[in-house]
Specification:
With 214 residues, the chain is mainly alpha-helical. It folds into 2 domains: 1-100, 3 Solenoid (Pectate Lyase C-like), CATH 2.160.20; 112-214, Pectate Lyase C-like. It contains 3 helices and 2 strands. A two-stranded parallel sheet has the order 1-2. Helix 3 links the parallel strand 1 (188-190) and strand 2.
Length: 214
């Protein structure tokens, strides 16, 4: 009886872990990325988890929404490449060529750590910023339109006059953040926390807050 219970438990455990394990694998065949010239390739919403793309020509390639975690882009040419909403956590961009927008925030996207750093005036539109640490960061005048701030720590950050139009802020921590004149029109915040944040009632009316602490 006990053995049968343990066996059942193991089956349930495997079923539970299978989806997570599957997410940590690339669904792009290795022969597809074998050529050195992959310019203009469409990898939208594909998984290239852990794939080696080092030294390749990836000019104008489209990685929109792709899973690029742990991928190796060292020495690759990514000028003109689209990285909107791509998950870049743990990826290697050593000596990679990137457009200015991505070059300026690539460390944040890879490490997720931007605490107390200066990102003022930077363009972060459509950036995948899930679970990043931006506590105490200077984001004044930054453009965060349509970015994904799921679970982001933005406690005490300076978001004054930043643009967050259409931004997703589920579980985002905005406690004590300075949101003076921050444009949050059309943004959606689910179970976000804004206690102590500098924000007006008029601003709050332009976004949707569900089960959030304000």
């Amino acid at each position: 009886m006990r053995i049968r219970t343990i066996a059942q438990y193991l089956v349930l455990l495997i079923l539970f872990l299978a989806p997570a394990l599957a997410c940590n694998k690339s669904n792009v065949p290795t022969d597809v990325i074998a050529p050195d010239d992959l310019s203009g390739m469409n990898f939208r919403y594909e998984s290239l988890y852990g794939m080696d793309l080092s030294e390749k020509n990836l000019q104008n390639a489209d990685f929109t929404g792709a899973d690029l975690r742990e991928a190796n882009f060292s020495g690759a040419d990514l000028t003109g490449a689209v990285l909107d909403m791509a998950d870049l956590r743990g990826a290697n961009f050593t000596d990679a060529k990137l457009d200015d927008k991505w070059q300026q925030i690539i460390d944040l996207l890879v490490t997720g750590d931007g605490a107390n750093k200066d990102y003022s005036h930077l363009d972060m539109t459509d950036a995948e910023l899930m679970h990043v640490n931006l506590s105490g960061a200077n984001l004044a005048y930054a453009n965060l339109d349509r970015s994904n701030l799921f679970g982001a720590n933005m406690i005490g950050s300076d978001l004054s006059r930043a643009s967050m139009v259409g931004t997703g802020g589920d579980f985002t921590q905005l406690n004590d953040a300075d949101m003076t004149e921050t444009d949050i029109r059309g943004s959606f915040f689910y179970q976000a926390t804004l206690t102590g944040a500098i924000v007006t009632f008029e601003q709050l009316k332009t976004a949707k807050f569900s089960k959030s602490q304000i």
